[in-house]
């Protein structure tokens, strides 16, 4: 076989592989589409002929209709954009503060043994109480504005980030710390250039879950008492026997959560680009 | 006379190091260890596994304090991380989230050298260890031997007068290891810092060092004997082992080392027997 023939053969094998991979992807997407059609179509067909069920359970066509009216005519409590903006504002501000606090406290307690000995038990106790209940306290204390919701979000986000930052700080390879110390790093330089980057693998993993908590905190806070936001929209839909409205608000929240997830994954890839590429596996 | 004029690079006097094991029982790693390394001397420390070779290095670097006795570097007692000392670890200790050039320039940057200057000198050292063109790679993109070169450059850029090496090449394959040893000797020859090179490989020790120190089997290890290696420099690590003088020295040191290896081995197997009996 000449070199040219070998080259042709390699190219043929490569393109065969690519074709097989493409066929596989198409098959996966088609199956996903089929699952969606079966679930939503089944729902639609089961419910649509029974007016009582339509009111109690909602129906896909009704949800779509509700979403369209909200977008075109606004909701009963103001424009849809305002409600989304309120909830997002609460979630994002709380998420940012909660994450920052969690990282600072986690790294500090992970680095300074005395601090972890003193504050460790307190944090365990605080983590053990059902924090969502604090929302009621915050609404009573800080009113119906966004402050009480931001506080609730902070409380929900903080602990997840804190425990991961703390554990990540504890798991830093001792050799990295020793090496940096010998090269002349101060304690602060060790923290900022060795401990933090190393702990980021852990911290970022917690951000995926924490953003979900941030949305839950904002919505629950709005349930407990507010004048605008997606939580108010859901509560108001529930109060008027509008199951389609509840579902429609959930669809909006899902879209927001997916967008946030996408952003966090981007951030993750950017901050952790020093890591070897992950082995290919099912993308979940 | 000379010792009075300039203190030795490293001086350990009657050093004892005790640890508390996880079960709470005290463990004596080193006892009454005396070791002197002169300026510019390449000293290899060999001994059976678990005899406290690495502990000696952590004491000199200031990562650990002795339980008794004194440690001095250039005549100054060690308290805290010793300045002017480089340390090459057995496992990779270069930072995986920093590129090669950022890793190598880390030392100067930590010490407050302006960024531009630090990067310039880092590029210089990267070239000297033969990694030109790899400045922007991350450690995971490099081979084991290349990562060792980065670690070497990372240390040498600080121009240490003392370099401590803890089996730095033990994870490398035999050929890469010999190449690295040759390059280490060439780089060492440029500035001639004092080196303490810990290894369990006697051939490597003799090929590299001016003196070979044999430690006794642990626990409570101490120095058993000290040998001068009067082979001419420059040496080629892969070829010097065929030198008849090399074989003489090897036989001498091996006689001292063998008994210790036997003791260490019988201890480890006795522990196994005890465990089986209980």
From TrEMBL, chain A:
| Localization | Cell membrane
The ABC transmembrane type-1 domain covers which part of the protein?
84-264
Indicate where this protein is primarily found.
membrane
Gene3D superfamilies tied to this protein = MetI-like
Record keywords, A-Z: Cell membrane, Membrane, Transmembrane, Transmembrane helix, Transport
Q: Where are the transmembrane segments?
A: 26-45, 91-110, 122-144, 150-166, 199-225, 245-265
What GO biological process, any one, is recorded here?
transmembrane transport
The reply to whether Amino-acid biosynthesis figures as a keyword in the UniProt entry is no
Keyword GTP-binding listed:
no
Gene Ontology CC: plasma membrane
Q: How does it sit in the membrane?
A: Multi-pass membrane protein
Per the record, the similarity remark reads: Belongs to the binding-protein-dependent transport system permease family.
Protein name (record): NitT/TauT family transport system permease protein
UniProtKB/TrEMBL annotation, chain B:
Query: Would the keyword Magnesium turn up in this protein's UniProt record?
Result: no
**UniProt keyword Nucleotide-binding, yes or no:** yes
GO molecular function: any one? ATP binding
Which intervals hold domain ABC transporter? 10-242
Tell me which positions the record assigns to the signal sequence: none
Cross-referenced SMART domains, in alphabetical order? Answer: AAA (SM00382)
> PROSITE patterns attached here?
ABC_TRANSPORTER_1, ABC_TRANSPORTER_2
**Listed InterPro entries:** AAA+_ATPase (IPR003593), ABC_transporter-like_ATP-bd (IPR003439), ABC_transporter-like_CS (IPR017871), ABC_transporter_ATP-bind (IPR050166), P-loop_NTPase (IPR027417)
Q: Which UniProt keywords apply?
A: ATP-binding, Nucleotide-binding, Transport
Full protein name = NitT/TauT family transport system ATP-binding protein
UniProt source species: Kutzneria buriramensis
